[in-house]
Structure formats: structure tokens, C-alpha cells
Amino acid sequence: MPSAENLVKNLLKHKILKLIVSSINTPIILSSKTKSPIRAFTVIEILISAAILSLLFFGVIGTFSSGSRSFQTGNWRVLAQKKAQVFLALLRENLEKVNNEVFVAASGVTTVNPMPLYLNNRWYGPAATCDVSQPVLYASIIVPYKSGQPDIYRLPEKGRWSGLSIICQNRKLTIKRTGSITDFNSPFPAQGRRADSTKFDDAGPEATVMSILEDVDSLQFSLIDNADGRSIKVNLVLRRYSNGLPTEAAISEEILAKLATKDQQVVGFVP
User: Fold this and answer.
1) pTM score above 0.85
2) How far apart are CA 212 and CA 173, in angstroms?
3) Domain boundaries along the sequence of the chain
4) Rounded Cα distance, 11 and 24, in Å
5) What is the pLDDT of residues 20-71, one digit of tens each?
6) What distance, in Å, lies between the first and last C-alpha atoms of the chain?
7) Pick from 212, 213, 218: nearest CA to 250
8) CA dihedral over 236, 241, 244, 245, signed as positive or negative
9) What gap in Å lies between CA 234 and CA 35, rounded to an integer?
10) Which of 126, 145, 243, 265 is deepest in the core (most CB within 10 A)?
11) Cα separation, 237 vs 88, whole angstroms
């Protein structure tokens, strides 16, 4: 009977043992279901798959971001348009009340003391940006003084004064009507001295109105003369800003305000 040593030599000689050893040292992955060998992913395949998933992920994020920006822009347009319309409606209502200092005598004869409407030349005529801090407009709104009529026991009726102003402060417009002379900072004597204080009182707190409009990109006032009198046309452009920079999103609104007095003086000024 051959010895174990001879048997081993014979196996090696016929390469049987080599085959067994090789099969033991080679990893084989078996499926838990089929118990058959399956092929594993290579590093290159894993990297390619990760790259594709990354592209899909960033594509979804980009689509979401674009949709979010579009929604924000659309929402801004709707809100900005409504705010501009409310602001301009208030401006038109007050511009149409701008008038002069009027005295009505007992005989019915009226005396007029002109109270000009002052407009900053920056926006009076050409359209200009609102990235500055300057006054835009000054005017007076006055209820006439009526003299007394002793023969019918009618006492004098004092007039009432209120001042109208618009201030621009770095893309923000503030319109303010005040019935207090101490709260009205017009640099012009016609408005600054108010009307004749012996015949006109301040309109008081009930006359106070104020509104603020932001994101104002440009502003323009135009004077229109026709057979019916004088009108002021106001053009306004609002623009959305993002991180302090202007975007393409913008809206525009305009109004036409007919002045109460046909010969109302409109004077340009440089602050």
C-alpha cells in the first residue's frame, strides 16, 4: 500500500491538489436564494452610479429652486401691484385737493393768494431713479375763509390748512398729509408760513394721512394742460431686489390727477 507521502506526490503530479487549493483561496459569492455564484460591482461601476445619482439629485434641486424663485417673483408682482395702486390712489385723491389760499368776502367776492405746488426737478418732466434721499413734492390743501355777514348774524368761518409732502429715501416713497404746521417741513415760505394764521387754523390730527411705498425704481411727474384745466400725470415703476441687486421683475402704474384749480401754479425746484 502506498504511503501518504507518495499519495500526495501523485496528487500534485496530476495537479489535483493545485486545483483544490486554488478553489479554496478564491472568494465565491453565493446568492442566499439560489446558492449560485453572482458577480460583485467594481469600483468604477460604483463611481459611475454615484455620479449619475448626483446629477439627478442636483437636477431635482435646481428645478425646485427655479420653481421657488418663480413663485416668489409672481407673489412679489401681485403684492407690489396692489401696494402701488393703493399708494397712487391716495396720491391722486390728495393732488386733486391741492389749491390756493382763498378768502370769500361778505359780498361773495373771492380773493386768491397763490399757493404753488412744488415738484423736484429730478422727477418733474423726465423719469428718474429713486435711489436718492430728496423731497419730491410740497403743496397745500386749504378750506376757504368766509367773512361774516352781520346783517344776517352770520359769523366769520375760519379756513383750515393742511400740508401735503412726498419724500424719497433710497427707493422708498413716503406721502404725508398733516394738519400741523410744526409737522410740515416745507422749505418754501408759501407753505412754510401756512395760510394767514388769523384767518386759517391748522386742520388738526384728523387731517393726518401717511403711506409708504417701497421698491420704487423710478418716478415721473408730468404737467398736462388742456381746455378742462391742469392735470398731473404720475408714472411709477417698482422693481424687485434680491440680495441688494435689481432683478428683471418689475411692475409699472400710472395715474392722472386733475387739479382743483385751473390756473394752479406748478413750480419746479432743486433741493
Assistant:
1) no
2) 6
3) 72-269
4) 16
5) 444 444 444 444 555 555 566 677 777 787 778 777 777 766 665 656 667 6
6) 125
7) 218
8) negative
9) 84
10) 145
11) 12
